[in-house]
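Box 3.1 A note on notation
Throughout this textbook, protein chains are presented in two layers. The first layer is the amino acid sequence; the second is a token string describing backbone geometry. Keep the layers aligned when reading.
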Amino acid sequence: MGRLVVIEGLDGAGKRTLTEALTKALHDRGSSVSTMAFPRYGESVHADLVREALHGEHGDLGGSVYGMALLYALDRRDAAPGIRAALATHDVVLLDRYVASNAAYQAARLHQDIDGQVVSWVRALEIDRFGLPVPDTHLLLRVAPAVARERARHRAAADTARPQDAFESDDGLQARCARLYDRLAEAGWLAPWHVVDGTARVEVDALVADLLASP
């Protein structure tokens, strides 16, 4: 059975870049790796509904915290068999976002802390009711919200097919979400967390060694 490693962080933190670097480093060590990113835009009807709602479609759906959280969760529920299959055939499964993203962003929208109702609800829904695989490790790619904001805006300007959505363009939401990610990491929510400085050169080989050595 492989290890399930989740990379979390703000929009623009550099999660995709870290996923690619970790995948290469793991391959170089002879480990087999499978990757997946959430939401699974273009693959999941639930993820596509999320994207459309975040760009103003479907009436007031985008304003519904629990409605949007449910769509994110349903996307992962549908992906769960693929995650389990990947864990059975690979040494490491790397996920770009997972359950903690839902907890952090929805709590940030409601101005709640991690002991608030929505974080408990997300865990009960995704882990207990939907039975999603529990991560072995989280990696929090930590950057200041201002840095993440500039990266996200630069990315949107460079790729006209990927304009910023309502969450990415909400500076206050991103700042609150950064604090909630820190709180989830401090609490070891769902699994142990490793905090990675997203503004410094990541020592990928050392990080991989730590991940593979973790119980």
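Helices lie at 15-28, 45-54, 65-89, 99-109, 117-129, 145-158, 171-187, 204-213. The mean pLDDT is 91.
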